[in-house]
Amino acid sequence: KITASSPLHLHETMKIIWAAAAAPGLAFRHAPVVSWTRITTRIPPGSPLHSTAAVESAVPSSAAPLSPKRADFSGFDYGAHWYPVVWARDLRLDEPTRVTLFDVDYVVARTTAGTAGEEDEAFYALVDECPHKKVALSEGRVTKGGDFQCSYHGWSFDGSTGRCVEIPQTCIAKQGRAGVESDDIPQQSGGGRRRREDATSVAVTVVQGMVWLQPNYTPIEALAAAANGTLSGPPTIPEIDEEGYKTTVAIRDFPIDWTVLTENIMDPDHGHFAHSAGQAGKGFDLYVSDGVENKPALDEEWPSSGWKATNSVPAVEKLIAYNSNFRLGGVKKKKDSKKKTDGPTKMATTIFHAPSVISMGRRDNATAPAAFVSGFWVSPTGVGRSRFMASATVKSPISVPRWATHMNLNNFLDQDTYLLVGQNRATLKREAEGYLANDESDATNPVRKSTYVYRSPSEKLPTRLGQFFDATLSRSPNRREGVLAWYRWNTEGGKLIGPGPSRREILDRHEQHTKICPDSSDLVERCDRVMKRSRLVAVALVLARLLLGGGAGGVAKEAGGPLAKGIIQWTVGLAADAARRSVLRPGPFVAILAAAAALYRGSSLIKREFHFKTDEGRHRHDVKAISDMWADL
Questions:
Q1: Angle 420-437/479-490 helices, nearest 10 degrees?
Q2: Which of 386, 144, 370 is nearest to 252 (CA)?
């Protein structure tokens, strides 16, 4: 049984910790559905692969055995990993949703159709393309039986196998040719071979509330690979599953390359400046190195076809302490000293499971649990694009609405995302130039080595991450073709065209977050309703005041004529008199108008948090806070 993660939670320290915020040339082969915690796939009856309608197998989640150390990353294989695409809770039930990996679109769905009960959920994924005329299946629907149906001509496909189960236009012919099989007429119980009318299914699993795709396996291959240990499960963050911990999750798309976004998350030095507004920058200081007493320790592991890096540094203030004790002449030294506590110093630990998962927390050691953990999943959407998904896991009974967390997080993300535009363009340009100079598909491309200047003692892990990308990116699916296409579109004569995307394009919260997060989009709809109703109340109240502002009983006294007309006038008069004596009196009238105005204003401010907000003026205001973190001399 797979269940989506429940609405989760926030801690007072969250805003600080948040801030610490294929073989060569192989392109993915697309494959059918697999669930990691309970592998389940629907196989057509009569198939030689299995005699029942479902295959279930418990699979160990331990990593594959370690292989000999390969510091040059020559053994890393992008085709051997699961990739995060969306939080399960963000998939609306029985609605197809488009996701993207390495510039290939997929359609995923969450459904209870065909499961044991309404509480059981199944997750299916196909390449987002109907084989008939190449229309996006994500524009269609999920049938009551759990099949994907194309909205262009009505073709339907089994979610777990991709098999075409119905072509409406052939139903009459099929009935007239009963018992005669044809490649042109899909058979519900046909064999296991794939036909031209079948869609391409994709392996999918749900782990810790996240939906993952592995496009390089069929269901049977995935079952076998999991059983023999050649296919490991997605990386996990242990605290998320621990009793007593609460987790809140977030999602946002960015027009920034996934490699640049990953580097940004694992760069602790930028937080002290880019996130100096508010308290966010202070959390980053725990993860930096001073190069003297607090040096980083980097440990690496090479699981089969993978790479894991663990970076630890004493979780004490460095830049903040230096700024206080020396640049400010010890003005804040006494105040800062109160923060010291007894016991051993915790280690600010960053763990990276290449190519997509990052976790950060203060621990007694690299494997000890942390009271607060930030998790980051960077989905490689494509060249120049990324999907950012995050979690905050804390030991706390406190629970807050998810949208409240998003308001804080989006403000935080806006502080430095626009700064990444220059880095994004420079690295993609240099990467394309490397491909043009070397035709070998698996050659190392020294993009970061030739573009960046590393000098900080905190950059031990970022430097290693740069080496990883330089050594492996040319082997990632569709990378070379995508980067060269980007280069042709964005350069002329070897020079970049224009200043790049605008601030509004880069920081458009509505397109990047609100549209893909049901909790936030539902909140915005509620705000719209409150604004509309509060406006109607205010208008109605003012009109009533204008029309009924005369003496009491005016309408009732004029009642006359036919009996029915008199009764109506008498009733209206009574209502008018009651209004004058209650809501239209000066005190209640002003109070109701004020309440309506407050509701309207409050709803509009909340709604604004889910649209473009951080313009240049707000950015300039935030930049002024740098001098509070690092005093001018």
A1: 110
A2: 386
Q: Which tokens belong to 314?
A: 């004493």
Average pLDDT (520-529) is 96
Nearest CA among 633, 458, 508, 18 for reference residue 278? 18
Distance CA(60)–CA(150), nearest Å, equals 36
Summary mean pLDDT of the chain: 81
Q: Bridge-partner residues for 212, per DSSP?
A: 84, 205
Q: How confident is the model over 394-414, as pLDDT tens digits?
A: 988 887 789 889 999 999 999
Residue 128 Cα distances to 80, 157, 169, 380, angstroms = 21, 12, 22, 17
> How buried is residue 462: exposed, middle or buried, by Cβ count under 10 Å (0-12/13-18/19+)?
buried
Intra-chain end-to-end CA distance of the chain, in Å: 61
Q: What is the CA radius of gyration of the chain?
A: 30
- Phi and psi at residue 14, in whole multiples of 5°? -60, -40
Which amino acid is present at 455?
Answer: R
Q: Mean pLDDT lowest for which of 94-103, 466-475, 561-570? A: 561-570
Is 34 within 8 Å of 223 (Cβ atoms)? yes
How big is the CA angle at 503 (ends 497 and 507), to the nearest 5 degrees? 125
Q: How many Å separate Cα 189 from the centre of its chain? A: 38
* pLDDT attached to residue 341: 54
Q: Is the peptide bond before 355 cis (omega within 30 degrees of 0)?
A: yes
DSSP letter for each residue of 349-408: EEEEETTTEEEEEEESSTTS--SEEEEEEEEEEETTEEEEEEEEEEE-S----HHHHHHH
Strand order in the sheet with 104-111: 97-101, 104-111, 122-127
How distant is the alpha carbon of residue 471 from its chain centre?
27
Structure tokens at 539: 């208008």
Per-residue pLDDT tens over the stretch 71-126: 789 889 999 899 999 999 999 999 999 999 999 999 999 998 866 555 678 999 99
Token code pair at residue 273? 């400046």
Angle at 129 between CA 124 and CA 134, to 5 degrees: 160
Count of residues making up the chain: 633
pLDDT above 50 for 224: yes
HSE value, Cβ hemisphere, 13 Å, CA-based, for 236: 18
The pLDDT of 227-243, averaged and rounded, is 89
Residue appearing with tokens 């969250």 = 14
Kindly report the pTM of this predicted structure.
Answer: 0.83
Beta strands at 357-363 and 372-382: parallel, antiparallel or unpaired: antiparallel
Q: Name the token pair of 155.
A: 């073709």
Q: Looking at this protein, which amino acid is placed at residue 497?
A: I
- Residue 339's φ and ψ, nearest 5 degrees, are -80, -10
Q: Is 368 helix (H, G, I), strand (E, B) or coil?
A: coil
Alpha-helix runs per DSSP H in 61-139: none
Q: What does the alpha-carbon distance between residue 63 and residue 61 come to, in Å, rounded to a whole number?
A: 7
Answer yes or no: are the C-beta atoms of 362 and 347 closer than 8 Å.
yes
Strand order in the sheet with 83-87: 83-87, 210-214, 203-207
Measured CA to CA in angstroms, residue 101 lies from 24, 87, 386, 490, 542 at distances of 18, 15, 9, 22, 55
Residue for token digits 């290693």?
464
Which of 470, 400, 390 is closest to 435 using CA atoms? Answer: 470
